[in-house]
Amino acid sequence: MVLRKAREVFGRGAVEAPPPRTSEGEAAALCHTYEDLGLGFFWSTDGEGRVTYLSPGAQTLLTEGADATGQNFLEMFLRTGGESEGERTLPFAFARKGRFEKITVRSERGEDETLWWSISGEPVIVRGEFAGFRGHCEDITGERRSAEESSHMAMHDALTGLLNRRRMSQLLERTLTFCSSQRSPCAIMLIDLDRFKQVNDTLGHAAGDALLKQVAARLVRVVGDKEKVSRLGGDEFQVIMPGIDDRGVLGDIATSIITSISQPYTIDGSRCLIGASVGVAVSPFDGDDSDSLVRNADLALYAAKGSGRGRFRFFSADLLKAAADRRLLEEDLHDALQKDELEIHYQPVVRAEDNHVVGVEALVRWNHPEHGPVSPARFIPIAEESNLIKGIGEWVLRRACAEAVAWPGGLRVAVNVSPVQFGDDGFPALVASALANSGLDPELLELEITESVFLQEGGATNDRFKALKGLGVRLALDDFGTGYSSLGYLKTAPFDKIKIDQSFVRGATEAGSRNRAIIAAIVALAQALEMDTTAEGVESFDQFDLMKSLNVTLVQGYIYSKPIPNDEFVKKLNEGNWIIEPSGPAFQRHDRQAMFRRIGVIHDNHYYPVVLRNLSVSGALIEGLVDVPIGSEFVIDLGEGQLAVAKVRRSRKRQQGLEFEQALVPDGNGGLCTRHRASPYQLAAAGLPQSPKGDGIQPVGPHLIGGGEDGKASMPAFAMASDWKGAALRADVA
Ligand code: C2E
Ligand code: MG
Ligand code: MG
Questions:
Q1: CB of 582 shorter than 6 A to ligand 1
Q2: pLDDT higher than 80, residue 1
Q3: Whose CA is nearest to atom 25 of ligand 1?
């Protein structure tokens, strides 16, 4: 029996009546050994493709040991669904009745095991007729798995299991090619963790690795598809989102990513907090190849980090300019101290109950010789990154102490401390020295610290607090409501005051806001712990009344006073017991941003340059056209392909109030943007003249775009205001 089979198998199929190649007994023995060693198996079928022989070893794998004789050979293997070419070619080879070699196919074993096979065969011809196949097959599952593993390793990040940088850049390249052929957009997000380095440095690399794994899992959960997320290296991640250009949707996703990553982590029993910043770029608007798209997302990420971290930012062309400006500003900041360009302004902190000034906050100002005053919100982050913050911080501290000593009436002065300064081991000694040199009573110095110093519980931070309290100074928790806003810190850290951030105060007057309840809770807790509460940035009476009704004790904001220079401040103090009456608008309109920006509007076939005076989610006020009837429709060109359809709702002389057809969305930086943008090819198709930079419509005019209905030039429907030239000039200055 075996002998017959062996002859069948080893026989040269296409040749009739194969002669024995060796003695029959020897051939049979060799076949047995070959099968037993599992080196390979033999098979044969009849003319209908039914099994006539299958090596016992192969039967174990393919039919769980059952006799395969009579089964359809092809049906023992998977026919479709794999990436294997062989699943299509094996049936084809059978149909062709020709010789085939090493076709790769799969079979299933049990519930979820896949086996891989390499199959070769030759037709058997009996009396000139096709009589079946004889062949050889091999189980190649082992080789296959290790190949898969090494290709998985080549494509994935070993730590997190996400795609790696190399794979992501291939994927992005491919996706962009596909998207551009479909004329569909593709967004990418770059995500960078805030303060990851500190966790790594303080808790160790193993903890850092554990943290990155948790971050990866959270990211995948938000994005919903592991194959779209990669770790580029270090604490940088990238997400690719084909088909999305809606900046409302992208902003929501970025916010979910930031919120999710900013929740506390538990690693080896210790708790730690990090944050995340996100930069977003969308093709084809922000670049149509992977290099430019990634570079621009990176620029947006950098801007997000620069504007306070924990934020997202969309790329826009002015970021390129901002990056250049920032480099120049950094150069100038190096000499700002020596050149005596810094000064301190003081903003009164007022007891809301009787309008008594009880203290001040020292706010540094930079008078730049060319650019004029530069906001600390702009230059402090630059100083923090370029190591200039220690010098600037020390100067502010010493100067504020020295000026405060000279004030009558023992007013308390609050000085902002950057987390970089706070983290410096020499900081308590510096404070001691500033106090000793100036002779200021430590009770009158308050240090304002933000939540970001609480990276991890215990350790260095607690020691720092103890050292500072030991000097007798007061500590305030600044910007509460912008970071993690965990009341947990308040129980352990020895704060004397909580400052509720202006964004939180502002939000509290909005309908349905939870901020009120949170502020009420903070105040109750502060009272129990004998801490003061200050509401920051109070501008209007609705905010003021709300803060008073919530029992916030101190108020600092424009409703009492803006920050003022020291000499002005001293003059007021010398006038006696200082009381300020609150004054300001009844309500805060936060939905409308005042501005002076040159934009364009399109009506019929004409493009008119106008000035944008204010902008809200739902509408805009424009200036520059006269006699525009109510109900007229415009397309507003906000630049960079941002076109918004709007209707004139109010029209007074040279100003028109417009309502957008589709609401604008937040741009992540306190501004607004359109959800969608018109791509360069859409602009071209509409006959709109494009800016040479390729970032929108060329803003010159009023001019005719496209042609009139009959292809001839038409007259503009509206006239420009007669003093328009002046307005345009002012717009250039703004
Ligand atoms: P901050 O410590 O939260 O200071 C309060 C900011 O709110 C100040 O902005 C102040 O001018 C502004 N402000 C006060 N009341 C109102 C109001 O009613 N409405 C509005 N819209 N704003 C109000 P400023 O002076 O631009 O400072 C910005 C930030 O820069 C400060 O925020 C602080 O974080 C930082 N900073 C300022 N001076 C220093 C400093 O000497 N050292 C450090 N490390 N940071 C500083
Ligand atoms: Mg402050
Ligand atoms: Mg603050």
A1: no
A2: no
A3: 363
Of 518 and 119, the structure prediction assigns the larger pLDDT to 119
Question: Is-contact 621 657, C-beta < 8 A?
Answer: yes
Joined tokens for residue 588: 């805060």
Distance CA 691, CA 700 (A): 9
Global confidence as pTM: 0.64
Taking only the tens place, the pLDDT of each residue in 229-261 is 999 989 999 999 999 999 999 999 999 999 999
Compute the distance between CA of residue 204 and CA of residue 206 in angstroms, rounded to an integer: 6
Examine the pLDDT at 704 and tell me if it is beyond 90. no
| Full DSSP string of 677-726 | ---HHHHHHTTPPBPTTSSSB----SEE-S--TTSS----SSEEPTTHHH
Q: CB of 381 closer than 6 A to ligand 1?
A: no
Sorted by where each starts, the structural domains of the chain and their CATH numbers stand as 2-146 (3.30.450.20), 156-317 (3.30.70.270), 346-574 (3.20.20.450), 593-733 (2.40.10)
Residues 6+ apart with CB under 8 A from 670: none
Query: If you measure from the C-alpha of residue 548 to the centroid of ligand 3, how many angstroms do you get, rounded to a whole number?
Result: 19
In this predicted structure, the answer to whether residue 308 has a pLDDT above a threshold of 80 is no
Residue 361 CA to ligand 2 center (angstroms) comes to 7
461 in Cβ contact with 488 (< 8 Å): no
CA distance 353 to 456: 37
Q: Residues in the chain, how many?
A: 734
Q: Is 537 in the pocket of ligand 1 (CB under 6 A)?
A: yes
Question: What is the per-residue pLDDT across 38-69, written as a single tens digit (0 to 9) for each?
Answer: 788 999 999 999 999 999 989 988 988 889 99
In whole angstroms, give the CA distance from residue 65 to residue 51: 14
CA dihedral over 582, 586, 592, 594, signed as positive or negative: negative
Closest Cα to atom 42 of ligand 1: 416
Range of weakest confidence among 140-154, 272-286, 394-408, 427-441:
140-154
In the numeric block, the tokens 């004139």 are attached to: 648
Q: What is the pLDDT of residues 352-374, one digit of tens each?
A: 999 999 999 999 999 999 988 99
Give me 349's structure tokens. 């902190």
Q: Which residues lie across from 657 on neighbouring strands?
A: 621, 650
Mean pLDDT of the chain: 86
pLDDT at 723: 65
Query: Which has more confidence, 692 or 634?
Result: 634
- Are the C-beta atoms of residues 163 and 227 closer than 8 Å to each other? yes
The strand pairing partners of 238, in sequence order, are 190, 230
What is the CB neighbour count within 10 angstroms for residue 222? 17
CA-based torsion, 195, 197, 198, 203: positive or negative = positive
In contact, 55 and 43? CB cutoff 8 Å: yes
* Cα 198 to middle of ligand 3, angstroms: 23
Relative to the CA of 559, which ligand 1 atom is closest?
Answer: 18
Residue 726: predicted pLDDT: 45
Nearest ligand to residue 362 Cα: 1
Cβ–Cβ under 8 Å, residues 459 and 202: yes
Pocket flag, ligand 1, residue 284 (CB < 6 Å): no
pLDDT tens digits, 405-440: 999 888 999 999 998 899 888 999 999 999 999 999
